[in-house]
């Protein structure tokens, strides 16, 4: 479980693509400081399992993770290239402050940035989302975009808008990478999905079960 509060912006060191799967190497420092092989780290909002560490002069300088075919299909991680920045967050601790919202690291779908409006003190970004995701969005509700917990400003016609303050732009990849044409991982608030199922009498809607990535069995 995560909160959508980015701890560190890492850099893609390498992407090794194979037939139907890939291996991702991320350069970073903070999120691997106390990590162990098998731990979960959210990369642009996708929960991945640490399989090994990258060492430089005897110090941890990153980690590697495996991406199965479903991950490449259901997320935007397959778009990454060496040198790209990624938002990173370790799994939350039970005794830590809960600064964002409940984030599972299970990507519900991939959206596309369609507009970016630079305003004094705020950048408004509009993202196109599938009906299966947009149905769970409400103004002032929560949405995870590329691993970042954000508040929805408004929703209309398969699109939603979020506002980014200067701190968010500086502490995440959004200052540089969140531009029109960019594909981003989206995760709707899990509470909304549970409420939908309960109100439907336990029947799972065609949108409630989505392709979710985690490297765990």
Describe this structure in words.
- By secondary structure, this protein is mainly β.
- The chain contains 5 helices and 13 strands.
- The protein has helices at 69-74, 131-134, 166-171, 174-177, 190-199, and strands at residues 8-18, 21-27, 40-43, 46-49, 52-56, 59-67, 85-90, 109-119, 122-128, 142-145, 148-156, 159-164, 183-188.
- The strands form 2 sheets. Strands 4-3-7-1-2-6-5 form a 7-stranded antiparallel beta sheet. The chain has a 6-stranded antiparallel β-barrel with strand order 8-9-12-11-10-13.
Topology of this protein?
Blueprint: E1 8-18, E2 21-27, E3 40-43, E4 46-49, E5 52-56, E6 59-67, H1 69-74, E7 85-90, E8 109-119, E9 122-128, H2 131-134, E10 142-145, E11 148-156, E12 159-164, H3 166-171, H4 174-177, E13 183-188, H5 190-199
Antiparallel strand pairs: 1-2, 1-7, 2-6, 3-4, 3-7, 5-6, 8-9, 8-13, 9-12, 10-11, 10-13, 11-12
């Amino acid at each position: 479980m995560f909160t959508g509060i980015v701890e560190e912006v890492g850099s893609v060191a390498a992407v090794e693509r194979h037939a139907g799967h890939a291996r991702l190497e991320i350069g970073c420092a903070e999120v691997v400081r106390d990590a162990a092989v098998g731990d979960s780290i959210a990369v642009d909002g996708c929960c991945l399992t640490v399989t090994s560490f990258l060492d430089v002069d005897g110090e941890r300088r990153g980690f590697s993770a495996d991406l199965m075919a479903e991950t490449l299909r259901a997320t935007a991680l397959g778009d990454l290239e060496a040198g790209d920045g990624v938002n990173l967050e370790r799994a939350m601790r039970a005794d830590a402050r809960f600064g964002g919202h409940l984030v599972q690291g299970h990507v519900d779908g991939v959206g596309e940035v369609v507009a970016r409006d630079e305003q004094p003190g705020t950048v408004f970004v509009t993202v196109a989302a599938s009906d299966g995701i947009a149905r769970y969005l409400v103004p002032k509700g929560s949405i995870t975009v590329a691993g970042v917990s954000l508040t929805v400003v408004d929703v209309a016609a398969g699109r939603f808008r979020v506002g980014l303050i200067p701190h968010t732009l500086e502490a995440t990849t959004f200052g540089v990478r969140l531009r029109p044409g960019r594909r981003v991982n989206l995760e709707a608030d899990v509470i909304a999905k549970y409420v939908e199922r309960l109100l439907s009498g336990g029947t799972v809607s065609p949108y409630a079960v989505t392709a979710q990535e985690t490297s765990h069995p």
